[in-house]
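Operator note (shift B, R.M.): manual run for glycine dehydrogenase (aminomethyl-transferring) requested after the automated queue skipped it. Running by hand, logging everything below so the morning shift can see what happened. Input copied straight from the record, untouched. If output looks odd, do not overwrite the archive copy; leave it for review.
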Amino acid sequence: MAAPHSRRHIGPDQADTQAILATLGYESSAALAAAAVPASIAQAAPIGLAPALDETGALAALKSFAAKNTLKKQLIGAGYYDTVTPAVIRRNVVENPAWYTAYTPYQPEISQGRLEALLNFQTMVEDLTGLPVAGASLLDEATAVAEAVQMMARQNSTASKKGGVVLLDEALHDSSLNITLARAAAVDIPVVITTVDAASVAAYEGEIIGAVISNPATTGEIRSDLAEVIAAVHDRGGLATVAADLLAQVLVQSPGEAGADIAVGSAQRFGVPLFFGGPHAAFLACRAEFQRKMPGRIVGVSVDADGTPAYRLALQTREQHIRRDKATSNICTAQALLAVVASFYAVWHGPAGLREIAATIHGRAVALAVGLTGAGLTLASDLFFDTVTVEVTDAASLVAAACDEGFNLRLVDETHVGISVGESTTDADIAALLRVIAGTHATIDTSSFEVTDGPLVDVLRSDEILTHPVFHSVSSETQMMRYMRRLADRDLALDRTMIPLGSCTMKLNAAVSMEPITWPEFAGIHPLVPVDQATGWLELIADLEDRLAKITGYAAVSVQPNAGSQGEFAGLLAIRRYHLANGDDQRTLVLIPASAHGTNAASAALAGLKVVGVKNADDGSIDLADLDAKIMKYGDQIAAIMITYPSTHGVFEEHVGAVCAKVHAAGGQVYIDGANLNALVGLAQPGVFGGDVSHLNLHKTFTIPHGGGGPGVGPVCVAEHLIPFLPTDPWSDPTVAPATDAGRPVSAATYGSAGVLPISWTYIAMMGDEGLTEASRMALVNANYISQQLADAVPTLYTGDHGLVGHECILDLRELTKQSGVTATDVSKRLMDFGFHAPTLAFPVAGTLMVEPTESEDKAELDRFITAMKTIRAEIDEVIAGDVAVEDSVLRHAPFTAESVIRDDFSDAVSHGHFSREKAAFPVASLRRDKYFPAVRRIDDAYGDRHLVCSCPPLEAFDIEAATESEN
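Run finished. Output pasted below as returned.
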């Protein structure tokens, strides 16, 4: 019989577990967990899941789900299009742990590969949209539209203060309209769905904040008057956002050329599978003067300590954990891995290849249109890129007939059908469609089609696209493979080392869990297919939601939120809607402890709620006296409290039940942030010990990989009374006002990032009750082992009543910093020289490092980290003793590249005679055999913010010989 998956997932084997427990003074992991978790909340019974499957059984079950899905040619469109993922990208990125196990590039020196790929993405988006600044991806097209609306309201504050409105083009996709309506209502931004053209904008009575213009329309129409509409919006003092199709932009005039201020859309059709709705990277580009109001992340270019150009996340003061409720958005996890795929798609094909793909798609759409009109049918528009909408007598019957022939078309309304030609659509498919729709029989040959002969001739772009050499650098698969490998080698991901990040669990992403996501029966399903074609998907999702409900103790779960931050927003929106339904309009305040995750406050603001801080006690727990004072002061204004449990300070708070009871007594709801559920599964259930709602992070506790910053899934779990307020269908009719006692949609697709849900399903199914519970116990064991072993070198800031931490510990460097001047940042950079990713820096307490080893790390890796930290402590002691000044120390100069330590003038230019090459690069003997060198040295963040560059720099910037000659 095959070994249970838990043995493969949990790092320490039985002997090492006993050795660790012996040092901690416990006989078993269960005994340690019983001491760490308060008895008042301890789970009394097993979770109640089905018996664990082995890997073969899990794959068989997934194949059974997949077999129930029906694959057709997906011509539905509506923001999701047929695309071909190049095998070289699928194999070397999507299926490569060097890419999918990477963390968000907050430590840029060890993230240069994924930062370059994301910078390529930004450059691609900037070129295609004709705008100078783009971000490193958003979550989906619908939320990108909503983010643009909020961005326009922030930027055009004069019109906002005058009570202005945002005009939403009725030609937008229904999901974009519904998501935007929900988000705008939450923060009181007035929006109006209307026809957006020059005449209607000019005639609109009232102040205009801005307008969102869809080009193409959801029915496929390309606007010939885009510049005139944008000019009309500007004449009214408004800003203009264009919702664009990125592949269409290869051919048609860009939003920037037409005068747009912002452009948004999806990069899905750049090689990212349909995935039943996600994950897909969205984009937002804007004018340069708007860059500090942008949501999400921007990759920028700075320089390192040697003056070498280096990539980094720019403008980090906009990050939600710093600005909290003043943040531009609550986005924490973006769709980084999918943005990487899209950028490599552009590199692989290059501008000529993209033009060929776009022109071929357009040519076949034109052939379809010519055939339909030749048969006497009427088109909704003669100006289109890939989507032809045709008027018919009985649309439903036609869609059903096409389905029988293997094609999924879009039922627009009773008399209109949409057909969106995709990358894999063939001439034979066009002929078959003409036979089904018009009854005509013709041979189709589009090989000689020229774009200049088609309907787009008057709106074609005349400027060059993707001019940077990176998009002209690949002509063979060998080159492409090596480019992706070269970038991966510049990173430090989980396939090389433990990533000991507190509050950002980075555990094993088992290959057996990853394998099924690219199966065509999962990846090739459009989110708007008929229900009977997605039976397997729906059964898998329902089963996963049921398992998550059992694990958490809640009544129901929705997987629609496509990131943890969106799960937070969905939970708070449910609380807000619940109070409004009960007539408690005044409940608009959220109590948030000082130790809460940074996104909590930002999510509260997006949900239209105001933040009231609650102090922490000296032991890191919630200060009950301050909580009582806030409840007394605000009373029936309190909507909820947001609790992170175990706390972000790394401990199980004994009085969490009392906190929940106090807020409930005041009429508020209890939101328990599930980001730290990795310490609770099988041990305690937030839905039982006091929570009304939680979000989960499937990319943390339930092994969806982080992907360099996404994909993420943030299911929202609720108690019985909040079920009516769970996220609703984003594709409902946006012109029909939703019920006042119902929820609102939060993501573009009904099931969010469904494509990665098989990963979590597989993990849970293979671990079973005992495996999941033991994983939680071992997370506690490993964290306590690190805390205890480092107690004399770097003490832990907070512990519980038994001197134990939760699944993470905060290493307190503040006293050492006072004595030596060595900062937590110095330690983070020095850890790179040992081949480690840094722990979480300066959060939740400035001057500290928060460490979470997870249950997946074996004892040898834990000991390697402990040795590294003790060695660094010895280096700090040298500074304290006065043997070396902190400015001259190896710590302040870390990290070291291979180039820096082989320089002939190392002693003069790098160490200034204060430390040796060996000490710099090989501080412990084990590194002599296996050594990772960062691609760049310490990066100058301040320089990067002062000189913001967020597109690919010219190649000569990296020409070392040219740079040396210019210096001489």
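Quick read of the result: Residues 813-928 form a domain with the Aspartate Aminotransferase, domain 1 fold (CATH 3.90.1150). The radius of gyration is 28 Å.
Leaving this for review. - R.M.
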